[in-house]
From TrEMBL:
PROSITE patterns: SIGMA54_INTERACT_1
Record-linked Pfam families: AAA_22, Cdc6_lid, WHD_Cdc6
Protein name: ORC1-type DNA replication protein
GO-annotated biological processes: cell division; DNA replication
Entry keywords, A to Z: ATP-binding, Cell cycle, Cell division, DNA replication, Nucleotide-binding
Superkingdom per UniProt: Archaea
NCBIfam families: orc1/cdc6 family replication initiation protein (TIGR02928)
Domain called Cdc6 C-terminal: residue spans: 360-443
Family the entry assigns: Belongs to the CDC6/cdc18 family.
Length: 460
């Protein structure tokens, strides 16, 4: 990045030593318009690659739209005064774990709610404030956050806990990344806790994604009772599955004895306030009047998910920035809603097999031509053609039927059993339940064979 002096012609790194600009004396550049307007950039310098750097944006600071785009990143945790609509939940969770401040056992908590309802945000916020208060009262404490969707086995969770504790405590213990089981990682964690802390809070986000959640919860909730550590361990488990606690065996339910909370989806006014608190991600005055209320209203109507609303606002800003529109307008929100949905569908189908994408592509092409329900036999017939077009093996009829059932389970389509009338038996009909353009854009972008076959992209 250059300073202001460089941007006004003080930097000659882009010139050849024998160029007229380099030989200009006494700063007289009146006869050279390129130099008078600014330093001529070397087109061969990767720092000036026009694929990524717009003219006039060499230092990345002249975006008409963005002031601090990171404020709209999903992982950005807002400051306490920007947490909206969760005052009661903050007090309730704090009331359950506050005992750690006084050097005694906190209650364990399970928080339920749909995605984007503030479960993780409140848990991390309250835990950090607890740690700060405990530390100020000479009760050494810390918190550990584990994203269980990425760490979906007991061993991975135990490793994350141990390595996080090691980093936070500046321990000189070298904890291997691979090659150990959960018991060894627990031992590392307990050793660090014993040396550095009187208590910790462990936040297990999306606990239902862990393949042995019962073993994990039983281990942590009984650690002090089993003599692994004298420190107090409090657990905040977060789940989108409202029935998660009921699925735990009696032994775990007994050792946990949790207090449960349910976080309701955000209302339109709350989402609007959340987005208003992120307005400073943009340059002053570029977000038009109706953009934030419209984003909030649509998000509240569709899902009440604050994270999705923030994501839509970020995408709308990117669309406006890419188009050099000079302002973020309601039409950018319309496009952003579809793009965000495309991204979510892509996330869903990226974990499916290449053959599943061929079936979905076929299903989408059929729906684009005629938006109705299709028999398995109709889809299968056109699927065979798609396989021929991309040079793929053709699966059996039954296997394609199974793939269609999986697509229904993923919420992309729905299947309905239909009576065929006299002597025709019973058969299944399938229909896409998401926007066909969204489906097609997502599936085409997820598979190079289909991108080539489609010979282009869907403009969303």
């Amino acid at each position: 990045m250059t300073d202001s002096g460089e941007s006004e012609g003080g930097n000659c790194r882009g010139h050849h030593l024998n160029s007229p600009e380099a030989n200009t004396k006494n700063g007289d550049v009146r006869g050279n318009s390129a130099t008078a307007e600014g330093v001529q950039q070397d087109p061969n310098d990767p720092a000036n690659d026009p694929l990524f750097i717009r003219e006039g944006d060499e230092d990345g600071s002249t975006s008409q739209i963005w002031a601090d785009r990171d404020l709209l990143s999903i992982g950005t945790v807002p400051s306490p005064d920007r947490i909206v609509g969760r005052d009661a939940e903050i007090k309730s969770v704090a009331g359950e774990i506050r005992h750690l401040v006084h050097g005694s056992q906190p209650n364990h908590v399970v928080i339920y709610g749909e995605t984007g309802t503030g479960k993780s945000l409140v848990s991390r916020h309250v835990s950090q404030r607890l740690v700060d208060t405990a530390t100020a009262r000479n009760v050494p404490a810390t918190s550990v956050y584990v994203e269980c969707k990425k760490n979906n086995t007991e061993t991975r969770v135990a490793r994350t806990i141990a390595r996080t504790l090691s980093n936070k405590s500046n321990s000189d213990i070298d904890i291997p990344r691979i090659g150990l089981g959960s018991a060894e990682y627990y031992d590392y964690a307990y050793d660090i806790i014993e040396d550095h802390y009187d208590g910790i809070i462990v936040i297990l986000d999306e606990i239902d994604m862990v393949d042995n959640a019962e073993g994990l919860l039983h281990e942590l909730s009984r650690a002090r009772e089993a003599g692994h550590t004298d420190a107090y361990i409090g657990i905040i488990a977060i789940s989108n599955d409202i029935d998660f606690g009921q699925k735990l065996n009696a032994r775990v339910q007994s050792s946990m004895r949790t207090t449960d909370f349910v976080f309701e989806p955000y209302q339109s006014g709350q989402i609007e306030q959340i987005l208003e608190y992120r307005r400073d991600a943009f340059q002053n005055g570029v977000v038009q009047k109706d953009v934030i209320p419209e984003t909030a209203d649509r998000s509240a109507d569709e899902h009440g998910d604050a994270r999705k609303a923030v994501d839509v606002l970020r995408i709308a800003g990117d669309i406006a920035d890419d188009a050099e529109a000079g302002a973020v307008r309601p039409e950018h929100v319309d496009k952003a809603v579809k793009r965000a949905e495309v991204n979510r569908v892509k996330e869903t189908i990226e974990s499916t097999s290449p053959q599943s994408k061929l079936v979905l592509y076929t299903f989408g092409r059929l729906t684009s031509s005629n938006d109705r329900r299709f028999r398995t036999s109709e889809i299968y017939s056109h699927y065979e053609t798609t396989c021929g077009d991309v040079g793929a093996d053709v699966l059996s009829y039954d296997r394609v039927g199974q793939i269609l059932s999986t697509l229904a389970l993923l919420g992309i389509s729905e299947s309905q059993q239909v009576g065929g009338g006299h002597k025709q038996g019973v058969y299944l009909e399938h229909q896409l339940i998401k926007d066909t353009d969204v489906i097609m854009k997502a599936v085409v972008e997820s598979d190079d064979r289909l991108l080539k076959l489609h010979n282009g992209n869907y403009e969303i």
